[in-house]
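REQUEST ID: PR-0412
SUBMITTED BY: lab tech R.K.
PRIORITY: routine
TASK: structure prediction, single protein chain
INPUT:
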Amino acid sequence: MLSIALSELIQIFRNRLVLVTSFIMPVAVSTYFIYQHEIFAELGSLGYIAAVVMFTVGAFGLYTTAVTTLASRRQNLFLKRLRSTPASDATILSGLMLPVTVLALVQMTAILIVLAAAAGEPANVLLLAAAVLSTVIMMLGLGLATAGLTNSPEHAQVTTLPVSLGVIAVTSWVGITGTGEFTLLKRLLPGGSATELVLNAWNGGVPVANSLPLLLPTLSWVVVAVALASRLFRWEPRR
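STATUS: complete
OUTPUT:
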């Protein structure tokens, strides 16, 4: 798995499109939100800013890159060649997804640390970490599912838009308006419960026991995504 991961890491840094999607865009957006944190804190809260930057990295740095990577490796038959080796399917996918996952986690952590230094620390760091990890797992699962519908790296620019823009829209909706209205709908939408969890973790004022159940909708989306991926994911290009 580590050899596959190392090879994939080298490919990421050689691909300009992936570099822009994975690093430049999320960092640019996050920098703007942090620089203007006073304005956005008035619009929502510091927790809202944390949720937006987390999902910006999750949607573009992780999800979109994962789909693009898998579509590219399928198109050039690299997936097919890997599957002819003794490595299991789980090992192959883990090796391919490990670099982008680690990079996304590093980005999220660094950006949230900068936000804490600039605007104030979160009320509950452990709860925030749980929100970040559950979000990363959910976006990975959705990436595997979407990769099954994506024929090429170019096609990924289209197939990833609904989820990428959708989770950020849900994050802004929940982050700005809260969950006082349409509570169930907001929590069940992808990213909704994770956003609320980040709000509670950063802003405080909500008991941990009341926040932990918010992990369930996010993890439920992981189950749905994995089920879809098992049916949709392909190892070879369509003939």
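NOTES: The mean pLDDT is 88.
REVIEWED BY: pending
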